[in-house]
Amino acid sequence: MYLSDFVQLDGERYYIAVDTRTCQFRLERVSNDAIAQFMRNVLMLGEDDTIPGGRFPKVSSEVSA
């Protein structure tokens, strides 16, 4: 199982994921656009966990924290 979240360290945003089975973690620097796209992806999932129309919308603007 994976646990994941977005965190801010020293003014930079990161995506962190932890594999609870192997105790390994991944830390990846991300942009505001990446966070905005992630939120859109989560909000657009249908009841059957699929994406309507099979495509994600393109990120068009900066998101503030």
Taken in chain order, the helices and strands follow as EEEH
Structure annotation, total helices? 1
Q: Any idea how many domains?
A: 1
Integer average pLDDT = 75
Q: What is the CA–CA distance across the termini?
A: 28 Å
Strand order of the largest sheet: 1-2-3
Brief write-up:
The chain has 65 residues and is of the alpha+beta class.
Description:
The protein has 65 residues and is α+β, with helices and mostly antiparallel strands. The chain has one domain (2-48). The chain contains one helix and three strands. The chain has a three-stranded antiparallel sheet with strand order 1-2-3, with no helix packed on it. Strand 1 (2-9) and strand 2 (12-19) form a beta hairpin. It starts with a strand and ends in a 21-residue tail after the last helix.
Features:
3-stranded antiparallel β-sheet; 65 residues; flat; alpha+beta; single chain
